Amino acid sequence: MTSILITGATGYTGRFLANKLSKMGFDVHTIQRLESNVNETSLEKEITVHRIKIDFDSILNLFNNHTFETVFHLASHSSYQCEPDEIPRLIESNILFGIYILEAMAKCGCKNIINTGSYWQHFETIEKEPICLYAATKQAFEDIINYYVFSKKISAISLKLYDTYGPEDNRKNFST
After folding, report:
1. 88: CB partners within 8 A, 6+ apart
2. Tell me, what DSSP letter sits at residue 121?
3. What is the sign, positive or negative, of the torsion defined by CA atoms of 125, 95, 68, 154?
4. Residues 81, 63: contact at Cβ < 8 Å?
5. What are phi and psi of 112, to 5 degrees?
6. Among candidate residues 119, 38, 29, 10, the one with its CA nearest the CA of residue 71
7. CATH no. for residue 117?
8. Which residues, at least 6 apart from 46, have a Cβ–Cβ distance to it below 8 Å?
9. Helix and strand tally (H, E) in the chain?
10. Is 172 inside any structural domain?
11. Cα 111 to the chain's mean position, in Å?
């Protein structure tokens, strides 16, 4: 059975992906921060939830104890109008956490990552033109991924999400 790791399974898209892949027969693992207040009953019972401290040693330990074929990296902190007190959270969630994942992948032989970006990275153009600090951190992480692609031979793709909505979506967006 193919074992995969999903970050961001506490969000709408990550939860949907984790449940769908689990139903398809994949061995699905997720990472959740220790301080996360998440109702895990929204995930399929076959999904393994790893509640860990988000630091390199904890993530490396997870990779040392499990053989993941692919990482789906959906975790992020999103804020269009970022206040100064949110900057550390943006950097930790959108850059540092991802680097920990990439480093652990490189050290443990996991060679595939599917990352999620945002259309906000391309304001009125297809080139890099972030519209806000959140988008700039997402773009910076894609540039960091390129380093791992070339230096550590990790295969990567970044999918740009425009908006998501669907069944059981309780977020306030245009679908509600």
Report:
1. none
2. G
3. positive
4. no
5. -130, 130
6. 29
7. 3.40.50.720
8. 22, 28
9. 5, 6
10. no
11. 16
Tell me whether residue 173 is in a domain: no
- Taking only the tens place, the pLDDT of each residue in 127-147 is 777 668 888 898 899 999 999
Tokens of 4: 């995969």
Tokens 């992948």 locate to 105
Per-residue pLDDT tens over the stretch 119-129:
555 666 667 77
Q: How far is CA 36 from CA 28, 55, 89, 105, 120, in A?
A: 19, 15, 14, 23, 26
Per the structure, how many domains does the chain have?
A: 1
* Rounded-to-integer distance, Cα 166 and Cα 164, Å: 7
Q: How far apart are CA 175 and CA 130, in angstroms?
A: 25
Going by C-alpha positions, the residue among 116, 104, 124 that lies closest to residue 50 is 104
Q: Which of 57, 55, 42, 60 lies closest to 5 in space, CA to CA?
A: 60
What letters, b where the CB count within 10 A reaches 16 and e where it falls short, cover 15-29?
A: bbbbbebbeeebbbb
Percent of the chain with pLDDT over 70: 78
Q: For residue 171, is it within any domain?
A: no
Q: Is 25 contained in some domain?
A: yes
* Cα–chain center distance at 148: 16
Residues 6+ apart with CB under 8 A from 147: none
Domain region containing 17: 3-161
- Quick one: average pLDDT of 72-77? 86
